[in-house]
Amino acid sequence: MAEYFVGNKEYFPGIGKIKYEGPKSDNPLAFKYYDPDKKVGGKTMKEHLRFAVAYWHSFCGDGTDMFGAGTQKQPWKQDAKDPMEGAEHKLDAAFEFITKLGAEFYCFHDRDIAPEGATPAESEKNLMTIVAKAKERQKATGVKLLWGTANLFSNPRFMNGAATNPDFAVVSHAAAQVKAAIDATIELGGQGYTFWGGREGYMSLLNTDLKREKEHLGRFLVMARDYARSRGFTGVFYIEPKPMEPSKHQYDFDVETVAGFLKQFGLEKDFRMNIEANHAELAGHDFHHELETAAALGLFGSVDANRGDPRNGWDTDQFPMSYYETSLAMLTILKIGGFTTGGLNFDAHIRRNSVDPSDLFEAHIGGMDAFAVGLEVAHRIIQDGKYAAFVKQRYASFDAGDGARFEKGQMKFEELAGLAKEYGSVGFTSGKQERLENLLNQYLLGL
Ligand code: XLS
Ligand code: CA
Ligand code: CA
């Protein structure tokens, strides 16, 4: 077991490398469907799915909520003599966990991995000290950084926003953090850098200059991109849409809104979407809708894999479980050729009453299995081509003749209007939705 942890202490004793045991296994600490080396199409499951563990939920959050204190013991927080030693213990626990689980990647906020100092300079020093240690552990374990980000929402100075704060001094603090977090991401070979607009939005329009705030956000992102590129960052920038919480209205509401914003500020070449299932739901969309919209716009990037609770409308960040959702998600992702720099980041936390160290493993195992099933179902659907053939046929009237001329922009509006007379009574072709939904259930059960 010793080979799976790199620090001085084992934080998850009694749990070894998680193995694939197949669907009949009754071992809760084994994969039932995720078989990393199994080939699906031309790639292994591991290459397709690019799983990442979210540092903040798994190693920082301890079950604290608005109504009560933390419930999860987290031994890495218990015997440190100061916050920097605590950060190193956390790093050891994280790399032990990720390695035993067999995830390829992790993601972090600056403040997840290193404590904030009294000044920006001290914060940066703390961060880069831990980054050097993380780099050693990445080398020792082969675990890689999917993306880094800056926490621009926890410190009270960000209560009115970060890049969109009405006070310019706060904007400069946000820049200090983003600059250091970009440096950290580059140093660790991160394949992406994420901007989630934590408090970039408003609580009331009565005290907000919406136009100016959005322009400040655009300016800030342009400057951050240019800085990162000047430092040699070749990865992808992500914006992660979310419609609300903590703000009443967040500027990065959903994929369509962000797409318009990126175009407005000339950011569409460098930025892609990091789509979270729970955020899609908060925006009143299906997860599949957000993925398909990003794919259609050529802006798909990465995924924060989790689920919400459709009945309470909060960002509950639960682990993904629904094969229905993972299959539809993987269908869109496979259709556009799979992930490039992105991956499936488990931005999810175990429930407050899940207090056993093994619960964290079981949660991730379930999420990885759910996406492995989704991958296989989506692959089979694409191989079969039944949906694709149906959709192709549905739009066949645009493939030749007048329809094709319309698509190519070779027709005047008067001509289009005039054609109505020629076509007469049309438009009563069944969409066959029920048949197609029934088919999806057949695929899900593998019949
Ligand atoms: C919060 C967001 C956040 C981002 C990273 O709702 O999901 O965790 O993913 O800042
Ligand atoms: Ca997220
Ligand atoms: Ca969330």
TrEMBL record:
Coiled-coil stretches, from where to where?
none
Keyword match Magnesium: yes
Specify the superkingdom.
Answer: Bacteria
On assembly, the entry states:
Homotetramer.
One GO molecular function term? magnesium ion binding
Its subcellular locations are:
Cytoplasm
Q: Which InterPro entries match?
A: Xyl_isomerase-like_sf (IPR036237), Xylose_isom_bac (IPR013452), Xylose_isomerase (IPR001998)
Instruction: Give residues annotated as binding Mg(2+) 2.
Output: E276, H279, D315, D317
- Alphabetically ordered keywords of this record: Carbohydrate metabolism, Cytoplasm, Isomerase, Magnesium, Metal-binding, Xylose metabolism
Q: Entry's HAMAP family? A: Xylose_isom_A
Entry EC number(s): 5.3.1.5
- Required cofactor names: Mg(2+)
EC top class, as a word: isomerase
Q: Which named protein is this?
A: Xylose isomerase
